[in-house]
Design a protein that fits this description.
43% strand, 412 residues, Ubiquitin-like (UB roll), alpha+beta, 22 strands, four-stranded antiparallel β-sheet, 11 helices
């Protein structure tokens, strides 16, 4: 606080020398003139003194036979005259302050949080329909009415809150996240697990249903492995009826799987010529302003770089400027070398194997080769795998069940 007061009043850094500098400092102390940061170098003293105290030194200097020289000036009394000489700086400062004050009366950013079912675009369209947009005046916004309109327009929103934070409108919503209960339709028809490909059963754990094969059996595609029709027996071990369930089991089938991918011999590669052209633009909100331009090159790609001043960012004002750089390139044909082709094809193979691993497929053996024909590079592979069974069909045999019930009634 003391340093701030010294700066506001202004002070000097001076050099003192002469007949009796020690007596000079004693007289200053008696007259209440403050001296600080006193340093002695040889016969001279360096010290700080207030601007007001400096004007009271003349009689003391005469009485002590000393002289004083100003080295540096500090404080607001010395800053203001220098600023007044720089008219452009003063105008810029006034313009900045006016711009800052006027901008604070408007909404420059709208943020929405908590929306998952309702997309950002749908909510923005709703706000535009209700005249809530970026650039509107803060005093034109009725927050209470906006919250009512949100709950009225979107029944899935159970809670909505809107508030102004500076130049930003913050909208927080909460959607109804209660799980939607879907009633499962009861069906008397069960389901069977079937083989989707030819193979050998290597593992089998049945949780529900009737197993129709054993470990080691060779099956064909479409073979029923676990049946969803479970018989219920009488005391004399005759079938009384059938219960239908969804067959559930962990079954692994060992079978062969083929893989094939190709890569053209030639490809087109971009080669940049080094010629570039930059186009500048100004973006205010959703509008972009740029000078009309012609097509810069025959073929090119573009790189956009956009910036926003820190002052506008703190105010949440959506004003940006940037540049779009167009870079010319030529399409040139190149042929894959064997090393390049093998690297790309092996990457495709690794992606294929990763997909199998994600599905729980175990690879027992593999045989992969890469060949070249007249038009492309080809990778071919044969794999011996163990794959979980996931095929499922509805259980047949409802009529048979009915005939058993009819026969039982006839016997009675």
């Amino acid at each position: 606080m003391i340093k701030f007061l010294k700066y506001m009043r202004g002070y000097l850094r001076v050099r003192l020398w002469g007949f009796s500098p020690e007596r000079f400092m004693n007289l200053c102390s008696n007259k209440g003139i403050l001296l600080w940061d006193i340093v002695r170098e040889g016969d001279a003293y360096y010290m700080c003194i207030s601007l007001q105290g400096f004007w009271e030194l003349k009689p003391i200097l005469k009485k002590t036979g000393t002289r004083v020289a100003i080295l540096e000036r500090y404080g607001l009394p010395f800053l203001i005259p220098r600023l007044l000489k720089r008219k452009i700086f003063i105008l810029g400062l006034l313009f900045t302050l006016a711009f800052w004050m006027i901008s604070s009366f408007y909404i420059w950013n709208i943020e929405i949080t908590g929306n998952q079912q309702i997309t950002e675009d749908i909510f923005q369209s709703f706000l535009e329909q209700n005249q809530v947009t970026v650039g509107m005046r803060r005093d034109e916004l009725n927050i209470g009415e906006l919250e009512k309109q949100i709950r009225r327009q979107f029944p899935e929103i159970t809670w909505a809150s809107a508030r102004l934070e500076g130049t930003r409108l913050q909208i927080d919503i909460k959607e109804n996240d209660a799980p939607i209960i879907i009633e499962k339709q009861e069906t008397s028809q069960g389901t069977d697990l079937i083989a989707e490909y030819d193979g050998t059963v290597t593992a089998m754990i049945v949780r529900s249903g009737v197993p129709c094969v054993s470990i080691g059996d060779v099956v064909e595609a479409g073979t029923v492995l676990v049946e969803g029709r479970v018989p219920v027996y009488n005391e004399d071990k005759t079938v009384r009826e059938y219960c239908y369930v969804d067959a559930d089991a962990d079954i692994l089938l060992e079978h062969t799987m083929d893989f094939s991918e190709n890569l053209p011999l030639d490809y087109v590669r971009k080669e940049y010529t080094g010629r570039e052209k930059a186009r500048y633009y100004l973006k205010l909100g959703s509008r972009t302003y740029r000078l009309p331009e012609e097509r810069p090159f025959l073929v090119y790609d573009s790189v956009m770089k956009e910036t926003r001043p820190l002052v506008l960012e703190k105010l949440n004002i959506p004003a940006f400027w940037g540049a779009v750089t167009h870079r010319e390139y030529l399409n040139t044909e190149h042929a894959y070398t064997r090393k390049e082709a093998e690297a790309l094809l092996n990457q495709k193979l690794m992606d294929f194997l990763a997909d199998l691993e994600e599905k729980g497929v175990q690879i027992i053996e593999k045989n992969v080769r890469i060949n070249k024909n007249d038009t492309s590079w080809v990778i071919e592979g044969a794999f011996l795998v163990r794959e979980p069974v996931t095929g499922r069909v509805e259980t047949a045999g409802m009529n048979e069940d009915s005939s058993i019930d009819s026969a039982g009634e006839a016997d009675e």
